[in-house]
Amino acid sequence: MAAAIVRRLLSSRTEVRKLLLSSTTIGAAIVCSSFCAPARPQDLLHGPAPEVAPVSNADSASIDGCQMIARIDNQIVLACEVLWRVNHIIEMNQDKIPPEQVEMAREQLLKRELASLLDRKLIYDEFRRTVPAENLPRVEENLLVPFQDREIPELMKQLNVESQLELERELVRLGSSLADARRAFNEKVIAQEWVRSKVKINEEVSPDEMWEYYQAHLADYDYPTQARWEELMVRKNRFSHPGEAYAEIARMGNEVWRQGMGQGVRGPAFAQVAKAKSDGFTAQDGGVHDWTTQGALKAVNIDQALFSLQVGQMSPVLETEDAFHIVRVLERKEAGREPFTEVQGKIRDKLKEERFEQGVEQYLSRLRRDASIWTAYTGKVSADVLLGRTPEETQRR
What we know:
Layout: H1 2-9, H2 16-21, H3 28-35, E1 68-72, E2 75-78, H4 83-92, H5 102-130, H6 136-142, H7 144-159, H8 164-173, H9 178-198, H10 207-216, E3 222-223, E4 226-235, H11 242-260, H12 268-277, E5 288-293, H13 300-306, E6 318-319, E7 323-333, E8 336-337, H14 340-370, E9 373-375, E10 379-381, H15 383-386, H16 391-396
Helix pairs in contact: 1-5, 3-6, 4-5, 5-9, 7-8, 10-14, 11-12
C-alpha cells in the first residue's frame, strides 16, 4: 500500500539523468574556469563530504536530519540532503496517506530520493578525484550568485515562503538546512558541466541522416487545422439580467465595427475595445488567442465560428453558459505537414541530442558498474539494484 502511494506521489518527478541532460545550465565557464586545470596526484581530493551541524529544531522530523543513509564511492549521503523534500511531499499529500503508513511512506520516499542521487554522486565523486583540491573553494564561490539568484527563489516558491529567513526556518522544520540545499545545488551544477566536458559526440549530421529521420517520423510533423483569433466577452453575472449582458456585447461589437472600418484584419480597434471593456482572460492582450486547434474548445459554437468564418470577419454574438462572445479570426492554417526544409534544423539538433544522451548513458554505465555502494536500507548493493532495474534491462544497456 505504501509503495503504491509513493509511486503516485513521485510519478511526475524528473529523473536525474534528464536533469543531467538539461540544456538549462549555469554555464560551463563558471565551473570550468576553476576545475579545468590538470590534476596532480598530490592534489586529488579524497574523504567524506563536509560535516553539517545536526538539526535540533523540535518540530523537525523524527529521523535525525544528519544520519548517514548511504555511501556512494567516496561520497557520504546524509538524510538531511533529501529529508526536506520527502517531508514536504508527505505534508502536501497527508490526506492521501493513512496515519499508520506515514513512516513507511517516508522510508520508501527516502529510498527513492536516494536512488535519484546516485548518478549525481558518482559524477561528483569523479570530479573531486580528478580536480585539484585547492580549486574546489573557487568553484563553490563562483556558484554562490547563481544559487542566490536562481535556486533560492525556486525553493521559496516550492515551499511557499516570502523571504530567505522564512525559507531557512522551513527547511530546518522539514529536517534540512539552507547549507544542505546549497551543497546539493553545487553538486547538481558541477555534475551537469562535468558530464558535458567528458561526453564528446560527432557534431556532424549528414543530410541523408536528417531525411531518414524525417521519413521515419512523418506523423510528428503533421499539424491539424488551427486558427489565431481575438475575442470580446461579457460575463452574464455582471448584470441582473442576461439581456443586459447581451446589449453590452452588442455595443462593444458595434464600437469595433465603427472604429475599425478601413483598418483591415489587424486594425487596433478590436484590441482597444477588448482591453477597455472585455471580460475575457486575454483581454489585457487585446483579446488575442494563440493558435487553437480545431475541436479543442469546449464551446462548440465558438469552435465552429473560428473554422467557418472568413479571416477578418467578425462573428455574430455567440452565447455560452456564462457569457456572450464575439470572435474574429486573425489567421488560419489548414491541416498539413511541416516540410523537411523547415524542420531540418530541429532534426539536426534532435539527432545530436540523441547522440549525447547515448554518450551520457555509456558514461554513467561505466561509473555505475565500478561503483562501491552501501545504503542503510540494503547494505552493500549494486547500482542497478538501487535503481530498481531488472537483469534484462541491465543487459539491454
